[in-house]
């Protein structure tokens, strides 16, 4: 996602999340430089961001001073149980080793209130790319869906699009809700 403002695919998925998330606090886990957090904030969400990288957080705080950004690990969020109405992991679970994903999704489930909405986005595939000592894992949507189901999430919607100009793999996303499969 180089330029969210010119990316209708990302905007559509993020807009769906914005339209469906219940009122309350929202977190972007693995927020990086804060572009998605800011985009969602400008659309009215009460959102904050968390990331492991002090450098990314410094950039996010300098660029978007009106949004709260905290250093933290999505495997162990410093939040009370059931304290969020929504959580987004926009291309951030790709940095988590496969064997740790069930724990991450259990942590997401822990901090989301009943009916809370989770959106995860990722590149589709089965390989690991290493760039400057950082692993980027491509994931299978059915595997991710199964792990989310095992963590107590019910499916709401899912999507896939083929590689575009700057993409190197198909992109996928899953929208799930805590404990209920139907909206409303």
Automatic annotation (TrEMBL):
What keywords sit in the KW lines?
Answer: Methyltransferase, Transferase
Q: Cross-referenced InterPro entries, in alphabetical order?
A: Methyltransf_25 (IPR041698), SAM-dependent_MTases_sf (IPR029063)
- From the Swiss-Prot or TrEMBL record, what is one GO molecular function term? methyltransferase activity
Q: Which SUPFAM superfamilies match?
A: S-adenosyl-L-methionine-dependent methyltransferases
Which is a GO BP term held by this UniProt record?
methylation
Domain of life where this protein originates: Bacteria
Among Gene3D superfamilies, the record links this protein to: Vaccinia Virus protein VP39
Domain Methyltransferase intervals: 26-116
The identity of this protein, by name, is Class I SAM-dependent methyltransferase
Q: Which organism is it from?
A: Herbidospora galbida
Its taxonomic path starts at: Bacteria, Bacillati, Actinomycetota, Actinomycetes, Streptosporangiales
């Amino acid at each position: 996602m180089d330029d969210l403002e010119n990316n209708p695919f990302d905007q559509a998925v993020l807009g769906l999340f914005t339209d469906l998330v219940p009122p309350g606090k929202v977190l972007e886990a693995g927020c990086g430089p804060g572009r998605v957090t800011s985009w969602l904030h400008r659309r009215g969400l009460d959102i904050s961001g968390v990331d492991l990288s002090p450098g990314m957080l410094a950039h996010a705080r300098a660029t978007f001073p009106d949004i709260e950004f905290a250093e933290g690990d999505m495997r162990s969020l410093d939040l009370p149980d059931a304290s969020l109405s929504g959580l987004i992991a926009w291309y951030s679970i790709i940095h988590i080793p496969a064997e740790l994903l069930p724990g991450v999704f259990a942590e997401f489930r822990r901090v989301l209130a009943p009916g809370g909405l989770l959106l995860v986005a990722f590149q589709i595939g089965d390989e690991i790319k290493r760039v400057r000592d950082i692993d980027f894992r491509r994931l299978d949507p059915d595997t991710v869906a199964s792990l989310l189901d095992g963590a107590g999430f019910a499916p709401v919607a899912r999507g896939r699009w083929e590689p575009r100009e700057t993409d190197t793999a198909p992109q996928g996303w899953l929208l799930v809700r805590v404990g209920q499969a139907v909206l409303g």
